[in-house]
Amino acid sequence: MEQGESDETAVVRELEEETGLSVTVGALIGSVTRPGPRGLYEIHDYACQVRSGTLRPGDDAVDARWVTAAILATLPLTEMLRDTLEAWGQLPRS
Predict the structure, then answer these.
(1) Which parts of the sequence belong to the Nudix hydrolase domain (predicted)?
(2) Beta bridge partners of 50
(3) What is the value of pTM for the model shown?
(4) Which domain, by its residues, includes 56?
(5) Are 40 and 83 in contact (CB under 8 A)?
(6) Which of these, 16, 19, 57, 62, has the minimum number of CB atoms within 10 Å of its CB?
(7) 3-state secondary structure of 10
(8) What's CA 78's distance to the chain center, in Å?
(9) 54 pairs with which residues across the strands?
(10) Separation between Cα atoms, residue 55 and residue 47, nearest integer Å
(11) CATH code, 37
(12) Contact yes or no for 16/53 (Cβ under 8 A)
């Protein structure tokens, strides 16, 4: 987040920069705190509705794509991401 930026403004800006998608920000789904190279990061995840744009990877990613639950299950993910999303009810239970 930029200094003085609201969560909603940061989500809209970051998604545009990192995915090429313009979104409408919805409800807060959950929050976690994770260690990072410059201390702890407080991460807030929001439900979003895509309004426009074409999905593409940002400058710090190799790929960006929509996947099914079956394909997602085969991908390497950040530690605890799958468990956290399942706990928040955002993935189908296996």
Answers:
(1) 1-91
(2) 23
(3) 0.84
(4) 7-87
(5) no
(6) 62
(7) helix
(8) 12
(9) none
(10) 17
(11) 3.90.79.10
(12) yes
User: DSSP string covering 12-57, please?
Assistant: HHHHHHHHSEEEEEEEEEEEEEEEETTEEEEEEEEEEEEEEE----
CA 38 to chain CA centroid, nearest Å: 20
Residue 12 tokens read as 């809209």
Q: Which two tokens stand for residue 24?
A: 């409408």
Render each residue's pLDDT in the chain as its tens digit; 94 residues.
889 999 999 999 999 999 999 999 999 999 999 998 999 999 999 999 999 999 999 988 889 999 988 898 899 998 889 889 999 999 876 5
Residue 31 to residue 33: CA distance in whole angstroms: 7
In a domain? residue 45? yes
Q: How many domains does the chain have?
A: 1
